Amino acid sequence: MRNQKSIVIILFIIALMWIMHTLSKNFMVDSDFEKFLMKKDEVISNPSIWTFIIRIHIVLAVIALLTGPIGLIKVLRNKRLPFHR
Question: For residues 22 and 61, is the Cβ–Cβ distance under 8 A?
Answer without folding.
Answer: yes
